[in-house]
Design brief:
Elements (H helix, E strand, L loop, with lengths): L27 E2 L2 H10 L2 E8 L2 E12 L2 E7 L3 H4 L8 E15 L7 E15 L3 H15 L12 H5 L1 E7 L2 E7 L17 E4 L21 H4 L2
Antiparallel strand pairs: 1-8, 2-3, 2-5, 3-4, 4-7, 5-6, 5-9, 6-7, 6-8
């Protein structure tokens, strides 16, 4: 499930031409723990690829197992079909971003956001091994709500036949973050405009039960404690 790694491995990803930013390079990081934490906290990734010579970016759910990301979708999905065994795989760029705060400056130019992001480049491949598919689908469910995969009915044969899963290895990876206050120009510091950071937060509200939920079923601990 998210956060599982095994063995003694390097603690950082190796920078490449594609993972070293040309702007604000000091905000880039390659530490694996940081990358994993950003990935594990997110819900939605954006998967970019080229289709018929034009760029396409799709928002979708994902899950991490060690040094692999898994994305699922319909077997009729064009990008997922492009990762099949008959193809060499699909070159993709996957991104995850968290907005942690709104940075308000005295000048319009210096407004910004505090954020944490991860960019992954690589070749996506279809997962066909039944055991790996099961592991991937469980990871996708548990990524949204940890513990949920064991507390729901597994996919049946019909559902599995309609579901494609792709794998993207975490190899060419970088994180980028911004923290702190606005960076106004010295001559602007005396201007009569409020400046500072508006923090953003996320979390669970009280769960709303399904309208036809059977009586006597309580809210699971993993939601009640969220």
């Amino acid at each position: 499930m998210p956060g599982t790694t095994a063995g003694t491995q390097s603690t950082a990803y190796t920078p490449t031409d594609r993972t070293v930013p040309t702007r604000d390079a000091d905000r880039a990081a390659y530490d694996k723990d940081l990358v994993h934490a950003i990935l594990d906290e997110g819900y939605v990734c954006h998967l970019g690829f080229v289709r018929d010579g034009a760029p396409v970016v799709l928002p979708t759910l994902y899950g991490r197992v060690g040094e692999r990301l898994y994305v699922h979708g319909s077997t009729g999905s064009r990008p997922l079909r492009m990762t099949g065994a008959a193809d060499p795989g699909l070159p993709v760029c996957l991104t995850v971003t968290h907005v942690d705060g709104l940075v308000l400056a005295r000048s319009a130019f210096h407004h910004s956001i505090n954020y944490r992001s991860v960019v992954v480049h690589g070749i996506a491949h279809e997962v066909t091994d039944p055991e790996e598919r099961r592991l991937a689908l469980d990871a996708l469910v548990d990524h949204v709500v940890p513990g949920r995969a064991a507390d729901s009915r597994p996919a049946n044969k019909k559902e599995l036949a309609a579901t494609a899963v792709i794998r993207l290895d975490l190899d060419e990876v970088s994180a980028k973050t911004r923290t702190g206050d606005a960076t106004d120009e010295p001559e602007d510091l005396a201007l009569p405009y409020w400046a500072g950071v508006v923090p953003l937060r996320k979390g669970y509200d009280a769960p709303i039960p399904n309208a036809n939920l059977a009586s006597g079923i309580e809210v699971p601990d993993y939601l009640a404690e969220g």
